[in-house]
Amino acid sequence: MKKIVFTAVIMFFGITFSNAQQKGERPQKPPTFSELLKDLDKNDDGKLSKAELKGPLKDDFTKIDTDEDGFLSKEELEKAPKPERKERKRD
User: Fold this and answer.
1) Which of 16, 20, 40, 87 is most buried, taking the most CB atoms under 10 A from its CB?
2) pLDDT tens, 23-59?
């Protein structure tokens, strides 16, 4: 009987851990400049303007656009402050 209970407990924790990993709880790396251009550069000019952005990039546009040319460059994005992570609800 002890073996059955022990096996059930081990299986329960294994399944719980596996489900947590599948829910995307691993940290994601930020997109590259090329990926951002591909996804957000609506007029295909090779630049990212505030009108083309969304989320934290749009909210912090003036902080990130350090040369104040109205566009975000690869260098500006690499030097940009990282957005604060939101706390996730724990089940």
Assistant:
1) 40
2) 555 557 778 889 999 999 999 898 899 999 988 889 9
Q: For the chain, how are helix, strand and coil distributed in percent, rounded to 5? A: 50, 5, 45
18's tokens: 């596996």
CA distance 14 to 74: 42
Residue 71 near residue 57 (C-beta atoms within 8 A): no
Question: Which residues, 6+ apart, have CB-to-CB distance to 66 below 8 Å?
Answer: 76, 79
Helix (H) or strand (E) holding 49, with range, is strand 48-49
And the tokens for 48?
Answer: 């990212």
Burial class (CB within 10 angstroms; exposed 0-12, middle 13-18, buried 19+) of 48: buried
* DSSP-assigned letter for residue 83: P
Does residue 10 have a pLDDT over 60?
yes
